[in-house]
Design a protein that fits this description.
The chain is of the alpha+beta class and about 700 residues long. The strands form 10 sheets. Strands 2, 3, 4, 5, 10 and 18 form a 6-stranded mixed β-sheet that branches. The protein has a 5-stranded antiparallel β-sheet with strand order 12-11-23-22-21, sandwiched between helices.
Length: about 700
């Protein structure tokens, strides 16, 4: 009996052990299956979910390339500034934190709170804040709020050349001007930073990929000349109460744009405060009727075709002419005028009679040869082609209207390029703004600018005739107020009516006034164009735009060190300029061509942007370090302490001008002949001054003016 009881107890124990072992085996199997599921089958999904909760990869902006002027002065640079972000899981009171931050950032606390609730491991609070704001947020000592250095675009000269440089967005993408056109080269390649949080909810980050900085750009712009142009344009717009204005300064031999100023203007450092109409570059995107400045094309074409000469007498028929049944009046009842006087006095009747000799097809050919109706290829977005109808679409009165600058739409850049063609002995050289690019180095680099390929439009003889006729405009005609002190000058005034947006007809009160010219006449150093849109008061280019041209050109020639080619402070010229009467400066007809003539609309939307043409450039390192030239317009903002290099711009593709200083006439003639240059001599003795300066480059066969003295 006892043995049976013991056997039964032992069996129960074994059954319990088997059940316990089975239970352990089941749970162990379940755990293994679950672990297999988590570690093998669903590993990828859970890893991604954990990464989303605990990690975030953010883009680290690359250092955007600098933009320099031709002398190595920084016009646009990049500085490291603070951006604020949050790790919301570390914040105990999100509402209070949002309110504290909003008070410093001057923004809506609800917006900040929404962003903090939306993220768990990361949320941006504010991007690229200024130093004062960063200090104030640091002082709050908020838990879960951190700082990350980011690159921010900075324009140390503020408004200077704003429309040329353009502007960037929050993520450093170029949105206007050079910044947009060369965004890919300036922007570089962004890096990547990984933000992680450990089990104790502590944040840490590491950079996974360092950003690659962008290339630097060197412009043909001269900061000093740009400052002169902008200062005088601001004065002119304020004095005349004009709606807008443009000044362009160009080297006529190479096409280098030395200054391109627009009004109204904006500060790209404070883009949110900019007015919309200030953002566009009027010099390349706006279209206007050129008025009497276009008579340069009319007369140059007729001279080139040998249909007339500067001394031929033209009967202006007492100031009126009928073109295919349409009566057109001059602004004065002129009788017999020489062709030179037609330009001097800006006679519409005289210009029309000369254009009729050309005929539609020939006239249209010269218009297009001077660059009208096509883009110049300037390295800026939004360039217009203008409005130039083919001759096959001209009306019966078109040749009369176009000959005096109506029924055709041009840009300011096209017009200054036309004047530069006359200054450059009849060779059109496309305008250019980019001298070259440099690698992101702090060492000095030499940039060699190669002008774009030019093309001959008129012969040197015709160009010489036009120079003398345009000089007569200033000495004896409508451009007396453009006279310079110590320099000869050639130019042409322009006055054109604007279209009234209400009536759709030409306005009698709103005009575009302009003056374009170059100096000195025999060896032009610069071509300058002044355009004032809808000024109040006097309504003639000779009365309003010509004095602005005079102030700009006088300062620019002095800054460039161009020697005087006539007596300085000549009383006769000073009296001639001071004694010019408004009535003698009229250069446009009070009666516009109507009927079949089509007016060019004002402010036509820009044509689609064509691919930019980057001038050929060679860059080579130079071991020496040169000092940076001083700026006449110091920045009012503190410039970040950044490594910077000096840019030296050299114009290639020409002849190196010898140094004639202190040498006798015979030696100078021999050296000029050896270099393939023409010498223009004044005075006797030894050389005391020369233009262009020694060491500069000019095209083969170019002229060097040398003044001798004892």
């Amino acid at each position: 009996m006892g043995n049976k009881s013991a056997t039964s107890a032992s069996g129960n124990t074994n059954r319990r052990l088997f059940c316990l072992a089975g239970g352990f085996a089941f749970w162990f199997s379940a755990i293994c299956v679950r672990l297999f599921w988590l570690q093998v089958v669903a590993y990828g999904d859970y890893s991604q979910q954990a990464a989303r909760q605990q990690q975030r990869s953010i883009e680290v902006s690359a250092i955007r390339g600098n933009i320099y002027d031709r002398n190595g002065n920084e016009l646009a640079m990049t500085a490291k500034v603070d951006s604020v972000f949050a790790v919301p899981s570390e914040i105990t009171n999100i509402h209070k934190t949002a309110v504290d931050l909003a008070r410093v950032l001057r923004t809506d606390p609800d917006d900040i709170e929404t962003r903090l609730h939306a993220g768990h491991a990361f949320a941006w609070v504010a991007r690229k804040i200024d130093k004062d704001t960063s200090v104030r947020i640091h002082a709050l000592n908020l838990k879960g709020i951190y700082f990350q250095k980011e690159a921010k675009r900075f324009y140390p000269k503020q408004e200077l050349a704003a429309q040329v440089l353009g502007y960037v967005g929050l993520d450093d993408e170029g949105l206007g001007g050079i910044e947009r056109e060369f965004d890919a080269r300036l922007r570089g390649k962004p890096g990547k930073m990984l933000i992680s949080m450990d089990a104790k909810r502590r944040w840490f980050g590491r950079v996974e990929k360092e950003p690659d900085p962008g290339e630097n750009l060197v412009l043909t712009i001269d900061e000093n000349i740009q400052h002169i142009a902008e200062r005088e344009l601001a004065r002119a717009v304020a004095d005349s109460h004009a709606e807008a204005g443009t000044i362009i300064v160009v080297n006529p031999h190479t096409g280098e744009i030395l200054a391109l100023a627009n009004r109204p203007v904006f500060n790209p450092n404070s883009l949110s405060l900019a007015q919309k109409n200030a953002l566009k570059n009027r010099a390349v995107s706006d279209i206007y009727e050129p008025g009497s400045t276009f008579k340069i094309v009319t007369l140059a074409a007729a001279l080139e075709e040998k249909l007339t000469n500067p001394n031929e007498l033209v009967d202006c028929q007492n100031g009126s002419i009928t073109v295919n049944g349409l009566l057109i009046h001059d602004h004065k009842p002129y009788g017999l005028l020489t062709v030179s006087q037609v330009l001097q006095n800006s006679s519409d009747v005289g210009a029309i009679k000369i254009a009729l000799r050309l005929g539609d097809e020939r006239f249209d050919r010269y218009i297009r040869a001077f660059g009208f109706g096509s883009q110049t290829g300037i390295e800026l977005p939004g360039e217009t082609r203008g409005i130039t109808k083919p001759a096959s679409r001209w009306s019966k009165v078109s040749i009369g209207a176009i000959s005096m600058g109506q029924e055709i739409g041009v840009s300011a850049l096209q017009l200054v390029s036309m004047a530069s063609t006359i200054a450059n002995d009849g060779v059109y050289v496309p305008p250019r703004l980019i001298a070259g690019t440099t690698a992101p180095r702090s060492t000095q680099q030499l940039i060699t600018f190669h002008p774009a390929q030019g093309r001959r439009v008129i012969s040197p003889m015709t160009a010489a005739q036009m120079k003398r006729m345009m000089e007569g405009v200033v000495l004896n005609g409508t451009g007396k107020r453009a006279l310079l002190d110590g320099y000869t000058i050639a130019g042409k005034t322009g006055t054109s009516q604007k279209v009234d947006p209400v009536t759709g007809t030409y306005s009698h009160r709103r005009h575009v006034l302009s003056f374009t010219g170059f100096a000195p006449v025999n060896n032009p150093a610069v071509t300058v164009l002044v355009v004032l849109d809808a000024p109040q008061g006097p309504q003639d280019g000779g009365a309003v735009a010509a004095p602005v041209f005079s102030r700009v050109t006088q300062q620019v020639l002095g800054y460039l060190g161009v020697p005087h080619d006539i007596d300085f402070r000549d009383p006769k010229r000073l009296l001639l300029r001071a004694g010019a009467k408004d009535a003698d400066l009229a250069d446009g007809s009070p009666d516009r061509v109507v009927g079949e003539a089509e007016p060019a609309p004002q402010n036509v939307p820009a044509a689609p942007v064509a691919p930019s043409v980057l001038p050929r450039s060679d860059a080579k390192l130079v071991s020496a370090t040169l000092s940076r030239s001083p700026s006449p317009a110091p920045s009012r903002d503190a410039t970040p302490d950044l490594p910077r290099g000096t840019i030296v711009l050299e114009v290639g593709g020409g002849v190196l001008v010898p140094d004639f200083h202190g040498k006798p006439l015979r030696t100078c003639l021999e050296e000029a002949q050896s270099a393939g240059l023409e010498l223009e001599v004044s005075g006797s003795g030894v050389a005391q001054s020369q233009s262009p300066a020694a060491g500069s480059r000019i095209p083969p066969g170019g002229h060097v003016a040398v003044r001798f003295g004892r």
